[in-house]
Structure formats: structure tokens, C-alpha cells
Design brief:
Largest sheet: 2 strands, antiparallel
Structural class: mainly alpha
Length: 91
């Protein structure tokens, strides 16, 4: 595939899809930084290793429930940032 084709494909993604790709890439990166295998994470959050792999290689669109499970398994908390102020939204 040519670079121009790749750029066109990336530009055709919705903002929601781009955000989801960034989020799943970040989760995979954090898992690796913590030296946790896909199998270990899967066992911790009660999903299959194959499901973790599919999330990380973008062949499966995870639900919010799955993202939350993975984040919790990595000892992370999901939060919201106000784009206009760049501040964490607290309840």
C-alpha cells in the first residue's frame, strides 16, 4: 500500500474512530510498559487473550464495558477532560 493511500484512509476516519484507535493504542502501550502479557491481563479482567489481541490490533471495536474492564485491569480510571479548559472534569 502506498503512503498516499494510507493517508487517504486515515483522513476518511471519523473523529470517533480516531479517538478509539488512540485509546486502544494507549491501553496496549500501558500494558506493555507495565510488563503485563495479554494473557495475564485477560485473566485479570475475565476476557479471552484473543479478545485483548483483537482490541490491540484494531480488528474488534470494544464496547465501553470492555474498555473499562481493560483500564481497570491496568489499574487505570477513565476520566473526562474538558476540551475548552483542558481540565479534568470532576463530579
Amino acid at each position: 500500500m502506498k503512503w498516499t493511500d494510507v493517508k487517504q484512509e486515515i483522513n476518511s476516519l471519523s473523529q470517533e474512530d480516531k479517538t478509539l484507535i488512540e485509546l486502544t493504542a494507549l491501553l496496549a502501550s500501558i500494558r506493555k510498559d507495565k510488563n503485563i502479557t495479554q494473557k495475564e491481563l485477560a485473566e485479570k479482567v475475565h476476557v479471552s487473550q484473543a479478545q485483548i489481541a483483537r482490541v490491540e490490533n484494531y480488528s474488534y471495536t470494544p464496547t465501553l464495558k470492555t474498555i473499562t474492564k481493560i483500564a481497570t485491569g491496568l489499574n487505570l480510571e477513565l476520566a473526562f477532560i474538558d476540551r475548552s479548559t483542558n481540565e479534568l472534569v470532576k463530579s
